[in-house]
């Protein structure tokens, strides 16, 4: 693997990863409606995007869903991880382990379909949730995002020196106090990472949301999907560029924050 | 009730729960347990139930599983009709087989592209290593759907690739790349490449550089060194990465829907169409159940391999 | 300054009527099939600095964790100051612990770490801060109160951990390898500091350590543990001079062991027939019967090393020096006796211009009968 082969293969790999994204960004500034034929520089598709009520509305719905899903997923996932790493043996331990890891590998179509069928059955028998929309999407996203949060939280909890918690117990704090005084602050960076991941996953999800959403609650991916199914359209390029820009800025800020904390250590 | 603290409000609450026979501990267990039990486990029972029902034109569009017989007793109306239908209709069988084929081919390509990158990053010096790693993860944070969309612009008849090749005079007529299986392979490899690279990278960074030096010191050529030292040692990483690509690829819907042709059969797509177009919920449920086994089987296998490894 | 000298005036363990402050009775701890602590009985008295000494995995830390309340005994009982600890959680025990990893809360300043326990007692913030500051003065860290643990050196962290554990004035302080993470020089300084603090505050200390020198320096008494059981409890001098078993004799310091049988016992002398040394004369020890299998144990420094055959003793053997190591204050010898047995001897180097016996020389080793310790196990 020495010599020319490895660098060449790596270069090819990175071109493969970035070329489509770069072309996406470049053509978002294209004057022409034909996405892949250059017709001069223009920002007209950004203008059209801002005037597109449907896209703006669905983006707002997506952000709300992602915000609440990430919050709930952090609660459910952290508690699950905490219980599995700190509570020793209890009945249902194996079941919980399975339920918390299975969503990681479950095909989205299955998760989406089965949850929809659950919601329909619950509505028939319990009368709740009445219809489908924001609530049902949040529930569905929380469930699969909690698995990702749990994995991150579990890793951190296992690395954490358990004698920190014991020391707090020893100094007179009860279990609840120890959790809020010691455990939570120590694992906070991992939870922030988990929250961001959950937020991104929720924002990104098309399949599950398509199953469990109802009329009037179309998320951004659902709207984009219905647009791009019909073919490429330049305003989607503009939207993609904005999203990529956000991600880049977020990554730069996160990197800067991480470097700053690392220096302080 | 020593599970809660001494402070007064907690003690009051603790006392109340204690009266109910609940400890703080079981309450904490109950929250994730209930959430996942209701919203993850229970749906599979509903799925199983509806896969045994028949489709009707109503709301909801399936027959109830239980019914009151005329004498008032509860009757179970289960039919394995849907599963028989799946077995008999070649469409479903082909869809399952072609899903496995597409997932397998994509996994192999992801491995071929991902391995050199992971290897290179793992052996790179520190500032370069972090930057390259970040560059691998970065696309993952952008929208999955938009990454598929980016390839549409690339592969179209008058897309970037065809335009470039034609203007360079390499080809005369545009190549047909969109709406083919190849496009689906590209889409899957592209989407899941980070999942292949990261476990491989994690495995390869643990590789001691002295091992490579020892091998070449003992007279192995670079190629032989690679084949005899890092490759066998990174097998766990290869297995983990391949699983992370293969498993989600089997159930993939978006990529075949965007990039595949009408003849690109994938089981996720069949399920979607069964549900959204045909509105046959029971058959969709049956498809999902068969698919579940298709996905669970390799995971069980992986788990048992890992357990055996852990015991050694 | 010697630890046992401090407590020399009051040695409650020598008084049969004294009430133990901590009493461990028949305590066993099992983790699945593994027995970590097996049927331990132990009495510890107020004001002691008791060391639990043993190799890693001998159960000393598990015993300490049971005293702190982090583990529940599978069998047996623990009483602290007369109170049964069976159902008392760690946060309500009159004990505090100093952890091996120090377990300083990384997100709190030194000051907040130290004040944490006081705040949990319900003290007002200002009071807690005042007490914490006082404690930090005692461990000479008052200037670093606003730092975070990751901005401290190893020695400073160790002192914060000590201050945090002591600030609540526990009846009992448990220390898990308190000096384990420090380098040698710092460890020696800190040992004496620890003794001074213990003396000033009068708190009972139980220290877990694997370092015999540390245990000998610190302890009023040492409990040597092996495989979950306590092998011997005694003052450092007792443990060294009159070990109860080959394990203890070998674990603390170096020892020569000669297997043999009791041959003849007179009121003032006892003869042991060994294979290695032939007949050995030792001071009589009670409880031995003729023909019993015993081990004559001897510390290397108890050998006399001479060029000429010593007079007036039958405990003398001829050999030649195979190896010699000059350490400075003493020299260590490995001497091959004519019988083929290798013995270890050491001589202190009192005079500068001595002409010491050296490598490859012939020499005689001799022993005073009272220097032997006869072991039965």
Protein model, in words:
- The complex is a heterotrimer of chains A (265), B (312) and C (377).
- With 265 residues, chain A is mainly α.
- Chain A contains eleven helices and no strands.
- In chain A, helix 3 (53-86) packs parallel to helix 6 (134-159), helix 4 (93-105) packs across helix 6 (134-159) and helix 6 (134-159) packs across helix 8.
- Chain B is globular, with a radius of gyration of 26 Å.
- Chain B has two domains: 8-76, no CATH class; 82-311, MetI-like (MetI-like fold).
- In chain B, helix 3 crosses helix 15.
- By secondary structure, chain B is mostly helical.
- Chain B is 72% helix and 2% strand.
- Chain C has helices spanning 3-6, 60-68, 110-120, 125-138, 154-166, 184-201, 212-218, 236-241, 246-251; strands at residues 22-31, 34-44, 49-53, 75-80, 83-84, 95-98, 172-176, 204-209, 221-226, 229-234, 256-265, 270-274, 278-282, 293-298, 304-306, 316-326, 330-337, 342-348, 362-366, 373-375.
- Chain C has a six-stranded mixed sheet, with helices on both faces. A five-stranded antiparallel sheet of chain C has the order 13-12-11-14-20.
- Chain C starts with a helix and ends with a strand.
- Chains in contact: A-B, A-C, B-C.
- The interface between A and C is medium-sized, with 18 and 26 residues.
């Amino acid at each position: 693997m020495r010599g020319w082969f490895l660098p060449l293969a790596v270069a090819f790999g990175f071109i493969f990863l970035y070329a489509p994204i770069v072309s996406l960004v470049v053509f978002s500034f294209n004057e022409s409606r034909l996405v892949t034929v250059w017709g001069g520089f223009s920002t007209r598709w950004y203008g059209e995007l801002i005037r597109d009520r449907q896209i703006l509305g669905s983006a707002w719905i997506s952000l709300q869903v992602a915000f609440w899903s990430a919050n709930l997923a952090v609660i459910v996932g952290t508690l699950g991880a905490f219980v599995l790493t700190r509570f020793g043996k209890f009945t249902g331990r194996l079941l919980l382990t399975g339920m918390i890891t299975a969503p990681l590998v479950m095909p989205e179509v299955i998760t989406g379909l089965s949850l929809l069928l659950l919601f329909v059955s619950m509505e028939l028998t319990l009368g709740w949730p009445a219809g489908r929309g924001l609530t049902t999407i949040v529930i569905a996203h929380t469930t699969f995002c909690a698995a990702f949060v749990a994995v991150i939280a579990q890793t951190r909890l296992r690395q954490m020196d358990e004698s920190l918690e014991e020391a707090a117990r020893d100094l007179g704090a009860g279990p609840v106090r120890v959790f809020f005084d010691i455990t939570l602050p120590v694992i906070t960076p991992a939870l922030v990472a988990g929250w961001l991941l959950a937020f991104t996953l929720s924002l990104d999800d098309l399949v599950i949301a398509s199953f469990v959403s109802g009329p009037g609650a179309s998320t951004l991916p659902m709207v984009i999907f219905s647009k791009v199914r019909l073919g490429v359209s330049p305003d989607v390029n503009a939207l993609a560029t904005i999203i990529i820009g956000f991600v880049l800025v977020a990554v730069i800020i996160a990197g800067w924050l991480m470097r700053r904390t690392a220096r302080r250590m | 009730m020593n599970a809660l603290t001494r402070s007064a409000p907690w003690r009051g609450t603790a006392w109340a729960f204690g009266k109910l026979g609940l400890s703080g501990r079981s309450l904490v267990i109950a929250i994730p347990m209930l959430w996942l039990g209701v919203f993850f486990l229970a749906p599979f029972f509903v799925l199983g139930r509806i896969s045994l029902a028949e489709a009707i034109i109503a709301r909801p569009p399936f027959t109830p599983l239980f019914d009151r017989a005329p004498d008032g007793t509860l009757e179970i109306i289960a039919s394995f009709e849907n599963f028989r239908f799946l077995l008999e209709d070649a469409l479903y069988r082909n869809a399952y087989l072609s899903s496995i084929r597409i997932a397998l081919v994509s996994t192999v390509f992801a491995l071929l592209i991902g391995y050199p990158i992971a290897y290179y990053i793992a052996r790179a010096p520190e500032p370069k290593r972090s930057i390259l790693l970040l560059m691998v993860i970065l696309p993952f944070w952008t929208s999955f759907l938009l990454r598929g969309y980016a390839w549409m612009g690339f592969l179209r008849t008058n897309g970037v690739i065809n335009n470039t090749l034609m203007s360079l005079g390499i080809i005369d007529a545009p190549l047909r790349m969109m709406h083919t299986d190849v496009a689906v392979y590209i889409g899957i490899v592209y989407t899941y490449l980070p999942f292949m690279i990261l476990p491989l990278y994690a495995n390869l960074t643990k590789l001691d550089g002295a091992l490579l030096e020892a091998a070449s010191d003992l007279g192995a050529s670079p190629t032989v060194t690679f084949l005899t030292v890092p490759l066998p040692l990174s097998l766990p990483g290869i297995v983990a990465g391949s699983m992370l690509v293969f498993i989600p690829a089997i159930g993939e819907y978006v990529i075949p829907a965007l990039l595949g042709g009408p003849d690109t059969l994938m089981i996720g797509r069949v399920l979607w169409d069964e549900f959204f177009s045909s509105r046959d919920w029971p058959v969709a449920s049956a498809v999902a159940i068969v698919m579940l086994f298709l996905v669970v089987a390799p995971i069980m296998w992986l788990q048992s391999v890992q357990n055996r490894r852990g015991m050694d | 300054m010697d630890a046992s000298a401090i407590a020399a005036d009051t040695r409650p363990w020598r008084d049969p009527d004294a009430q133990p402050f901590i009493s461990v009775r028949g305590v066993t701890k099992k983790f699945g099939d593994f027995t970590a602590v097996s049927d331990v009985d132990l009495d510890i008295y107020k004001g002691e600095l008791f060391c639990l000494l043993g190799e890693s995995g001998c159960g000393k830390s598990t015993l300490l964790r049971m005293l702190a309340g982090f583990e529940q005994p599978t069998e047996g009982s623990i009483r602290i100051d007369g109170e049964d600890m069976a159902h008392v959680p760690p946060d309500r025990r009159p004990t505090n612990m100093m952890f091996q990893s120090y377990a300083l809360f990384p997100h709190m300043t030194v000051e907040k770490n130290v004040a944490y326990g006081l705040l949990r007692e319900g003290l007002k913030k200002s009071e807690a801060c005042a007490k914490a500051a006082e404690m930090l003065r005692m461990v000479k860290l008052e200037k670093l109160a606003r730092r975070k643990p990751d901005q401290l050196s190893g020695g400073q962290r160790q002192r914060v951990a000590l201050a945090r554990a002591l600030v609540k004035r526990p009846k009992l302080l448990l220390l898990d390898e308190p000096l384990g993470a420090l380098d040698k020089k710092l460890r020696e300084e800190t040992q004496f500091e620890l003794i001074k603090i213990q003396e000033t505050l009068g708190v009972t200390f139980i220290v877990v350590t694997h370092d015999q020198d540390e245990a000998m320096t610190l302890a009023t008494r040492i409990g040597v543990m092996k495989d979950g059981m306590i092998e011997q409890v005694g003052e450092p001098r007792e443990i060294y001079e009159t070990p109860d078993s080959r394990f203890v004799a070998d674990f603390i310091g170096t020892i020569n062991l000669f297997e043999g049988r009791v041959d003849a016992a007179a009121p003032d002398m006892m003869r042991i027939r060994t294979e290695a040394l032939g007949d050995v004369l030792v001071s009589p020890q009670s409880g031995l019967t003729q023909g019993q299998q015993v081990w004559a144990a001897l510390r290397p420094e108890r050998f006399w090393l001479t060029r000429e055959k010593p007079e007036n003793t039958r405990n003398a053997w001829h050999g030649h020096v195979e190896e010699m190591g000059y350490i400075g204050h003493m020299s260590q010898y490995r001497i091959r006796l004519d019988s083929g047995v290798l013995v270890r001897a050491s001589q202190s180097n009192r005079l500068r211009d001595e002409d010491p016996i050296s490598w490859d020389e012939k020499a005689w080793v001799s022993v005073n009968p009272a220097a032997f310790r006869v072991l039965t196990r």
